[in-house]
Records
---
Amino acid sequence: MAQDPNLFTFPSTQEQLDQFLAAYTADKLMFPPDKAMRGFKTRNLRVCRFCNSPAGSRKFKKAAHVIPECLGNKHLQSDFECDDCNALFGKYETDFAAWLGIARSVNGTVGKNGVPTFKSPNEMITARLTEFYTTNATKISTPSPDTGAINFDRESGKTVITYMKEPYTPIKVYKCLLKMALSMIATDEVEQYRPALKYLISGQPLPWFDEFAKIMFHVLPMEHRYSKPVGFLYKKTDAAAKLPMHVFVFYYETYIFALPLPFNELDWNAGLYKDLDILYPPAIVFHQPHPQSRCISRNLDLSGYEKVVGQEGHLSFEMKPEDLKNMMSFDPKTGESKEAVIDPGEIVAVVFATAGTTIKFDDITGKPA
């Protein structure tokens, strides 16, 4: 059993969860508020947490988002990020969004300019918010069924959409996550992470630091989807343990990203880095998973400085084979409905609507009301 009755994981990782919760305890939680925050320091009294520059030597005019705005955060902001660092972190966020690929469009994530439209560099896949009769939905389309970008298997009911991601640099993806993590550190502990803060804003390869540019990445089933991005900071219970002082866990939609914070000076000065262990948390969820549910987990190395170009991404979903036998087609031009069989060779678009969406039909015309 997990030590905290409110925390769960999947059966195959229960022992890993127990081990993690024996070594770490939740230290801090962050999530976007529904309204604008108040109580910030006046601009002339601010000091940048990241470059350690005070107002006067740096400007503090721009809104600084603790969680990137492109991930659905509007109001969670800070008063400890100068405009120069803000601009740098914006570049990290661009690469992070590129690495996520089609996810923000499919999930309907509202960023600075609304839900983004995704267009693959090779123009084989487009995903955009569209009007679907009486509701909004996400339409994923391809120019022609011959592209093979939308592949439907009639026997299994599985559809796989293959697309090309925008170019991204792995180390910038990692630093986007690291910046969020370091933003959560308590004010009286910030200087313990000065080496990590300097690394965050450095553009040069630093092999000793880059060794830590690895994360654990989990993909959850849809029933554990998060409507808002959430960050947890865990702190080790035994200061003498040969473990990193903090571990950051970030939730976005059905994704979990977990990474230890590198180079806490208390750990370093105590000699713990001579034989340091890394303890990644499993996929931690907050209600009991269904017995058949499964989570996909893998360790990712994000230490690369070379831009990744032309990487494929995949989106898949399944329909029950028995449901495929009872399908109907609707012709919006004539208003006619009839039994139908999906022809994989004719699919040029897939439309995702929110769960529970229904289309009301006019009793007289038989067309959508």
---
Amino acid sequence: MQIRKLNANEIPPFELLLLADPSQKLVEEYLRRGYCFIGLRNDQVIGVYVLLPTRPDTVELVNLAVDENHQGNGFGKQLVKHAIQIATGLGFKTIEVGTGNSGVGQLALYQKCGFRITGVDRDFFVRHYDEAIFENGIQVIDMIRLSQDL
């Protein structure tokens, strides 16, 4: 997979971005303030992530998605590792990520990539989303926060 920054004249891959965050409004908001990278295979966009500076020296991986037909092949891990390299290259000292309480695969992926759980933002998805979100048969209510020193 080739990974590169989304060019200013390109349309973001919303179908993928909305897999990771179902709120079009939130996705559009952080795309305006962040860095969007796409993963390509045979010139087809199969993955995406967004890095969003949040505090001095800190960046958050706010969206990470791999096309459902390409999941389970290590592309998510490649995207996370690339995000860590980019954040380091941009001079950030900490990278953070948040994921839903029911995202068992995501929690495992982030920890395999060196992230550590730092906290829980209780009721995050109830407060910030109008409709209930379900994943793995579990309602997504809390955000699990993870971080890694760079």
---
Amino acid sequence: MLQDHTSAGPRPRAQRRRDTEHRLAHDVDVWVASASAGGAPYLVPLSFDWDGETLLVATLADSPTGQNLAATRATRLGLGHTRDVSMIEGEVEVLDLAALPQQRGDRFAARTGFDPRTPATPYRWFRITPRRIRAWREADELPGRELMREGRWLA
């Protein structure tokens, strides 16, 4: 369970990790930031599924986000609220809809309420492996906000 915002002082790194893992397991939507090859930024909310190691999102293959993620293979995700945020930088793997095991697609659909395999318009899966995670609430939590570096938890 997420720790109360009114507690005095910054959370220890281990608590921040627990709070971040709770959000990954229970939240459904995440802000996805990407950029075009020319550097034009793009930010959209997408539903996701967390399997304990990667986040799975889906979007239209020809959308700006789909094109950006496929071209750069990198993203930054914002999970939570502005005063309780986890920022996740990740590597992106692009998968055609049929490339994902049926069970994982079914899990995504059940969790998010959306099945990208059913619309007539072409969607793709984007599997995101976190490489860096930072979490903080207020300025007193800026020191020690890094929870993961190079894909390894620090706490």
---
Amino acid sequence: MERQPNQRLADLIDEVGISHLALAKRICRVAEEWRESVRPAHTQVGRWIAGQQPRGATPALIAEALSRKLGRRVTLADIGMAGTTTSPEVGLSFSHTTEDLIETVIELWTADLQRRKFLLGSVDVTALTHPAFEWLLASAASPRAREGRRQVGMSDVEAIRSTSAMFAGLDNRFGGAHSRTAAVQYLSDQVTPLLSGSYSSSIAAALFSAVAEFNLSVAWMAYDSGLHGLSRRYFLQALALAHHAGDRLFGASTLSAMSHQANYLGEHRHALNLARAASHGIQHHDEPLLEAQFAAMQARAAAAMPNAADECLDALGIAEAAWERHRAGEEPEWISYFDESELADEFAHCFRDLGQPARSHEYATQCLAAGDEEYARSRTFSRIVLATSLLDQGEVEEACTVATRTLPRVQETASVRCTTYLRDFHVRARPYATHPAVTAFTEQARPLLEGHHLPGHRPTSPSDQ
């Protein structure tokens, strides 16, 4: 059969305004990130336009390269290559029908368990923009009944919630890498037949909400493990699941979690926009604890941006005022973790980034005095922030004492974030490298700083994360 020219691809390349050589180079960069052995030359771009269908992951690489250049999500259909591959785009869309959503999350869980290489690649933050915008503008979804082989009831939903809580507890105690694969295996083995089963509209709402919470927990586990591209896929599907559950509040909370990750990765402007979207998404709901948490995320992003100190302080004021309005026990159960200790921790992080170590020390101390060890990993972060505040005030020996006390906790935690906090403290201590306390800390922390304790992770620097 005579090949038909791929006009869709040609039109997109024209819209982007780049040469075939420039596109080929962009595809090679994406392929390197995704660990795919695809290195097209500019001549192959011409062949694709002429109608040749590339194989394997190449169509998805083309779509990703064009997405990054255009600043919007480009699908395989947009480039005239739909159906040419089992898409490495999996999890990067916002499904508008429940059947598409079910198919997407099952495909994501399956690809994750199969350890598909493309899942290890980065996902540009712009991939979050369009789904977040769609969620923000979408009307509230009405969960729908479904007919399937297996009858699903509330006991099934409660089993999902209990299991999700168990894995969240393991994550908090031992880090994201400890049991993430087991959590995904549960989703694949136990939740897949439920999503494909038979249920009423009320059960559908509860089911999709429970799976959204579970997916969000897995997203946090991947984030904590340094698997940021994979984490973003789970975050986006948690957002879509919350939407189809009719759970507007949880959808907004998912955007806030996406903001947290973007800020950690240094994408502060995007982090600020995601936190603002979360706040905007609940503007017609009286949920002061959520308002406080979302404002704190805005403050965290602004604190790390140049010339945004006033915006940070304004957001902290909003967070504090909203906290004062909230009444314990009236909030959704999944946000009840955000207590006085967590709020103080956000303030401590913000003042650290604003270069106000005395105030950071005040709030870090308040956080640790108010908190318990249920969220042990979070308190490890808080202690390292406390150590940093002491270091930045010239209290080198006390700072190293506090930091050294975190080492056993970091040692037993499969958490890339914990080691990144530790490395940040180590970098900040370099001006005092000859101080005996710094020398002693560095020697004790060396195996952790080099990443030898993390299963399956190569040594990295903070900038790698």
